TrEMBL record:
InterPro entries: ABC_transp_permease (IPR001851), BCAA_transport_permease (IPR052157). Its main location: membrane. CDD domains: TM_PBP1_LivH_like. It is found in: Cell membrane. This is Branched-chain amino acid ABC transporter permease.
Length: 291
């Protein structure tokens, strides 16, 4: 029983991390139709920001700085690189892929290719007893952060002015602009929110794995895309459920089958969902953007 509890909560913690990454991807691609391959680089930027500041500042402030760095970088990327390319999706892909390769290379050039150990605060290094299992505290923190983000995103899209502007701008950008509403500012805000979530994922991911590395964000981005396609583009609830399912399947497969097979199991889930959906809306849109 204790093993099942530990695996379940560890899987939910991993799923929460995937959700923090995938929610930003889903928000940007689902609402704005921009395939942002640089999202993993923003995760790396957040991870290294938190790593450098942890110990020098309280951990909460280090995480806040990681969120701010992710948001600012994303806003700059949208304003400088993406905004001129909204009608040129192939160029968007080339630009974001290049940035996704360049930023981790820059991080590697500054701090080296070796993984750096994260010194988590004492509050996150202990364990919590639950049903006979000793569960690392950071798993609960990740799950709590994911729940807060889920609720905040739903409120942002449904209850705020900018959320409504973004949704309307996606449907008919010319009409919204004709009404005197600056859609560009709203789109930049969406990118900034996605970047902030990437920074948060990087900071908490460093605690979850115990280390940061230049390519950590790129590796996690793969599972972010898997979760987005399974959950549905722009469907935050679906993304949350898909992230939890992928995290749980990975953990249980790695434990009861063989280490490493969890990644294969996640891909198998993706394949099964696509077969049931008949290629799926998410995959079709991915194909159209890359064709």
């Amino acid at each position: 029983m204790s093993t099942l509890v530990l695996l379940a909560l560890t899987g939910l913690g991993l799923g929460a991390l995937y959700f923090l990454i995938a929610s930003g991807l889903s928000l940007i691609f689902g609402l704005m139709d921009v395939l942002n391959f640089a999202h993993g680089a923003l995760v790396t930027a957040g991870a290294y920001t938190a790593w450098r500041l942890t110990g020098r500042l309280p951990f909460v402030l280090a995480v806040a700085a990681a969120i701010a760095v992710g948001a600012v970088l994303a806003a700059v990327v949208e304003t400088v690189l993406i905004r001129p390319l909204y009608e040129r999706p192939k160029d968007q892909i080339l630009v974001t892929v290049g940035l996704g390769l360049a930023l981790p290379a820059l991080v590697q050039g500054i701090w080296g290719a070796d993984a750096r150990q994260v010194r988590a605060p004492k509050q996150l290094t202990g364990t919590v007893g639950l049903l006979g299992a000793r569960v690392p505290t950071d798993r609960f923190v990740l799950v709590a952060a994911a729940v807060v983000v889920l609720v905040a995103l739903k409120l942002f899209l449904a209850r705020t002015r900018y959320g409504l502007i973004v949704r309307a701008g996606v449907e008919d950008r010319a009409m919204v602009t004709a009404l005197g509403i600056d859609v560009r500012r709203a789109f930049t805000l969406v990118f900034a929110v996605g970047g902030a979530l990437a920074g948060l994922a990087g900071a908490l991911g460093g605690v979850y794995f115990g280390s940061v590395s230049p390519n950590q964000g790129t590796s996690l981005l793969v599972f972010g895309f898997v979760v987005v396609v399974i959950g549905g583009l722009g469907r935050i609830d679906g993304v949350a459920l898909a992230a939890a399912a992928v995290g749980l399947v990975q953990q249980f497969t790695n434990y009861y089958a063989a280490s490493g097979l969890g990644d294969l199991a996640a891909v198998a889930i993706l394949a099964g969902v696509l077969l049931v959906r008949g290629n799926g809306e998410g995959l079709q849109r991915l194909i159209r953007r890359t064709a």
